[in-house]
Amino acid sequence: MWAVGVTTGGSHGDAELNYPHSRPRHPGVRTMLPLLPLLLLLLPAAHGAVELLKYTPSLTKTPVLEGLTTGSTFVLDQPRCVFDKYSNADIWLVVALESKAATFNNSIAPGTAESAFQNFPDIPAYMTLNATLANYPCSKPPGDITVLRVGSETSCIRDDARPTCNGPLPGPGPYLVKFLALEGSEPVAETRWSQPIMLRTAKSPDSISTTDGGHSAGMIALTTILSILFAILLAGLVAMLVFWGSDTCGGSSTFSKPEAVSVRRYNTHHVYDQPAARL
């Protein structure tokens, strides 16, 4: 604090301010000194500030060939025209379990053990599908499908040399995802976390109903038609057997020996009328 002294009388005359041991050489320095602690506190916060963008990743509404979600993958829309202020940044996809997403530290560098796919889900999240702003332009070429399929790589599941592998997801979830922009190793911007994403699960054989109530109307109709056709076929077979049996009992199936066919021999009469023929 500044010490203020007041002297009266004597040869000094009017009252004057005394600043013992700390009189500043320049008047402006006295004004800046109280602001230095506040500036020192604000500098670290400004250095580590990450802009939260008003964008939430979501499952795509674009029709895809292999389905929106499978047992180990899901499809997102690309974050186009989202990071347009960060032309020098690398954009990463962060995938986390919903239960651990809050513990993810965005200062963790991609490609390390703390963010490797091979260590998930023992770690809060992994980072994959890195891209630059050029991969996510605002314009969309006609006919292009601008989506990201998460979990589509299988060749790098156990390859520790590929920590950013986009490998199959290890369970049904739920999962949360967000996009994070890094300039060098410094995070500069990120999106919000997505809504929880659940994957498909195989239905247990024990849960499949075997009663009629568990079958669709089409299956019931098909079964009914096949049963009627089988009954008609069976009735025709029985009728054929009965007809053959009655025909055998009536004797109509006895066979008679065919009569022998005799050929009569004829001699022409003019042969004997000639006298030369008798010699």
Q: How does this structure look, described?
A:
The protein has 279 residues and is α+β, with helices and mostly antiparallel strands. It has helices at 27-32, 36-47, 217-249, 270-273, 275-278, and strands spanning 51-52, 74-77, 90-97, 125-132, 147-150, 175-183, 186-190. Strand 6 (175-183) and strand 7 form a beta hairpin. The radius of gyration is 49 Å and the shape is elongated. Residues 1-23 and 36-47 have low confidence and may be disordered.
Blueprint (SSEs and pairs):
Blueprint: H1 27-32, H2 36-47, E1 51-52, E2 74-77, E3 90-97, E4 125-132, E5 147-150, E6 175-183, E7 186-190, H3 217-249, H4 270-273, H5 275-278
Parallel strand pairs: 1-7
Antiparallel strand pairs: 2-5, 3-4, 3-6, 6-7
Provide a compact summary of the structure.
The protein has 279 residues and is α+β, with helices and mostly antiparallel strands. 21% of the residues lie in helices and 14% in strands.
> Gap between N and C termini, in Å?
182 Å
Number of strands: 7
Read across the widest sheet, the strand sequence of neighbours is 1-7-6-3-4
Percent in strands: 5-15%
Features:
5 helices; five-stranded mixed β-sheet; 279 residues; 7 strands; disordered N terminus; alpha+beta; elongated
